[in-house]
Amino acid sequence: MHNQQKVVVITGASQGIGAGLVKAFVDRNYRVVANSRSIKPSSYPDVTVVPGDIAERTVAERIIAEALSRFGRIDTLVNNAGIFVAKPFTAYTKEDYGNVLSVNLDGFYNITQLAIAEMEKQRSGHVINVTASLVDNAIDGVPSVLAALTKGGLNAATKSLAIEYARRGIRVNAVAPGIIKTPMHAPETHEALGGLHPVGRMGEISDIAEAAIYLDTAPFVTGEILHIDGGQSAGH
Question: How much is the pLDDT for 236?
Fold first, then answer.
């Protein structure tokens, strides 16, 4: 195993944090299976792309099948796909609710269940869930109930799975970002969003990618919710 390139599956991999994760793992000689609804073919020879909505079980099955067919194993799964809808609680629609839960929870459930089943066969593996710092530290003026409901649930699931699989060679951790400088945030909002962090600035995509790499190379760490949030989790 140690002489083989490790294989990582990354969801939500087409842009922003997901694209940064793909590059970070490729730079460290991993083979990557990358998924998102809008993903384009990759120029990296060790990256296989599988387009599709991770909320659909058949898409998760295709991702796992492609990883095994192309690379023969799955060492790490990074559950990065997610939707954030910032609306007052009473303004959420039935469609908002369904969309957020389908990607954030169904997507996690589908791919993680299948990936862990393969990891059990090799008695090793690692799952990293990308959640959100704000589920533990609500911010006035940033409505986030559906994020709290889903990403907070993933934090709890991270610890539960870590204990369930600790003696089977499988680790489970989470990265909980603060507000990260991605294309979803217009440049004119950066100063205000940066001010929501005690350090006075937004995080960078590389901060999240480096946290994921750290967790993947830390064999004694499991059940950890690693806050990469410029101090938000410490207080305001």
Answer: 73
**What pLDDT is stored for residue 1 in this prediction?**
40
CB contact at 8 A, 104 and 154 = yes
Question: CB within 8 A of 19, min separation 6: which ones?
Answer: 13, 205
User: Cβ distance 189 to 180 under 8 Å?
Assistant: no
Say which CATH number the domain at 217 has.
Answer: 3.40.50.720
Cβ atoms 69, 55 nearer than 8 A: no
| C-alpha closest to that of 11 among 214, 193, 154 | 154
Q: How far apart are CA 17 and CA 27, in angstroms?
A: 15
Number of domains in the chain: 1
pLDDT tens digit sequence for 195-233: 888 899 989 999 999 999 999 999 999 999 999 999 999
pLDDT lower than 70: segments of the chain = 1-3
Q: Which domain covers residue 89, as residue numbers?
A: 7-178+204-225
